[in-house]
TrEMBL record:
Taxonomic lineage from the root: Bacteria, Bacillati, Bacillota, Bacilli, Bacillales
Organism: Priestia endophytica
UniProt GO MF annotations: cyclic-di-GMP binding
Residue stretches making up the Type III secretion system flagellar brake protein YcgR PilZN domain: 4-87
A family per Pfam: PilZNR
Domain PilZ, residue spans: 97-206
Matching InterPro entries: PilZ_domain, T3SS_YcgR_PilZN
Protein name (database record): Pilus assembly protein PilZ
Amino acid sequence: MELKIGTSLMLEEINGEGKYYCKVVEEGAGYIYIDYPIHQATKKSAFLLMHTRLKAYFVEGDGVTYHFLTEVVGRIKKEIPMIQLHYKGKESLVKHQRREYVRVDATLPAALHSLNGTFEPFTTITKNISASGALLAVKEKGVFFQKGDKINVWLVFELYDQYYHIQTEAEVINILPSHVEKQHNVGVKFLTLGVKEQEALIRYTLEVQRELKRKGLL
């Protein structure tokens, strides 16, 4: 695969805590050029110092995540001010297998809908989540899922003061007992998650993981 103009990147400082978003606006031999990145926390344009070392993440159209290591090597003044990053090409890309998606404990509101009308829509919460699936707490109110069942799942979560509403078809992959009376946990795999939605979930889970590490809980 190739890194293309228009690709959204998530940048993470290797020797710092800064995290940013930007887009690839031009390409060159051994380099890519990005627009001025937006700091995740402040939502303001960021000024990256020369030789700042970064890890850059992006999601390909098939939903697979890649990253590569890079460094700020220049600034270009054109109609759109740009930052020049070192880029060795596709041989420098590291592919993340789906099993490598970060899974974090998170209590997010969710709504479940039947695809064929076998049960009434109801709301619940997640127990954990990743960019490929979730574990849902389901009370035993006449709704009994089986492995292989297909359902629609709606999720809501907040990331950097912005709310994301995600809808995807999902497949039940396991049903686990719960310590809560009259409740079981249903594991689902997301089937129709869009690239932007998956990218948002990746950012969310990475941010939750970082916060847990900062607090010494991981």
